[in-house]
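Annual report, structural modelling task.

Input specification for the flavin-adenine dinucleotide complex:
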Amino acid sequence: MTYDVLVAGASFAGLAVVQRVRGRVLLVDRHPVGTHQTSACAAPLLLLRAMGAEDAVQQVHRRIVLHTPWTTSIWPLEEPFCTFDYHTFCVLALRRTQVEFVQASVRGMEAKTVHTSAGAFRARLVADCTGWRAVLARAVDPGLPRRQWLGFGLETEAPYPFPEGLHFFFDPEVAPDGYAWAFPCGRTTRFGVLSYRGRTRVREALDRFVGRFGARPAGYHGGYLGAGVYDPVVGDVFVVGDAAGQCLPLTGEGIRPAVHAGWLVGELFQRVLEGRCTLRWARDRYRAYVASQRRRVGFLALATLLALHLPPRALALCIAGFSRPFLRHRFLVEYLATFGLPLSSGILEGRAGVAELADAVDSNSTGPKGRVGSTPTPGTRADSSVGEHVPYKDGVAGSSPAPPTR
Ligand SMILES: Cc1cc2nc3c(=O)[nH]c(=O)nc-3n(C[C@H](O)[C@H](O)[C@H](O)COP(=O)(O)OP(=O)(O)OC[C@H]3O[C@@H](n4cnc5c(N)ncnc54)[C@H](O)[C@@H]3O)c2cc1C
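The model returned the following structure:
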């Protein structure tokens, strides 16, 4: 039997894809859904609402707090973030779908057949959402994932009440090549250490960091973070989330990019299944969305290099400088536009789709390069404005240009 869609990996990216596609959909993960948390689970509150997972919220945060050994800066957030329970999130997100789930380890693929520990499955469309390992993309291109882009984070959750906010610590004593964090989740706090260089020996530093607050680590989890935007379509496989390097440099935020890209891929798959566009057009559209993030991701990669190479006092001065209201506001606007969507738009209420938004941008913009008004057709490169943070107007989606269907 051939499935319409097979999605490998049932975490943020995979669940976002399957939420936006109907038909015969198979979701495969080596673990039961929601049982293997790697993340500190901080994301925009609106995103949880849109995934139907608001009941997973543990605490809402309206500020970021940046600590250095010499300074503390508070950045208010216009759109609140929240910390949430991973298992509840995944279960609630899955409940919104009608997919078939198989617990199996994905091993590779040939043509349209995906090989797993539970047998081989054929599918018309395939998405690789297996995280930094990019299991299916690697089966097609053994050079993936690109190791120079892998950071590493380790985390523990301790019963310790921390003041509200997402707290980041740029302190060379704890994290000489990254940062430490404390994200309160109600009665507990998630403490972690990130190495931009992908150093995995960070547990001692994490224990020292937690010890500073008189708290005790209770179990550890973590892993690599895949950052660095590269081609998100490998062979015929649509690669989403960390598997495609969509985790953001500097902050290591990967849930929002994974979900936004996942929604887009799910909607593009749906269009292909309904015969509303060709597979080639869908590939171009997804590539265009990802390509449009390159400038902002490049800026964040540059900022990561600065954080790595500046002497600690200079870094503290830099953070204090960026904490002035104008610069802080500009930084946050640009930052949230990276893999961003106007979350307060009709996308969340189901009045507009991510793909429709992309089309609307296409048909309504007149970019400086003069290419923006065109819809990508098979064989042409798609425009680069898709995914810019533009206000969405009701009804615009209806005027989307028709993609090629043959
Ligand atoms: C310690 C730490 C803290 C973090 N904190 C945050 C945070 O607070 N906020 C934020 O936005 N980002 C955070 N990140 C980054 C974020 O966790 C990732 O970017 C995000 O999880 C990527 O989602 P994903 O769905 O692409 O991949 P993953 O969440 O890694 O999911 C991959 C899925 O694929 C499955 N899988 C893997 N291999 C196979 C296989 N062979 N067969 C079948 N299934 C397979 C896995 O079981 C898993 O379910 C953090 C990362 C780390 C390491």
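Residues 2-156+226-360 form a domain with the FAD/NAD(P)-binding domain fold (CATH 3.50.50.60).
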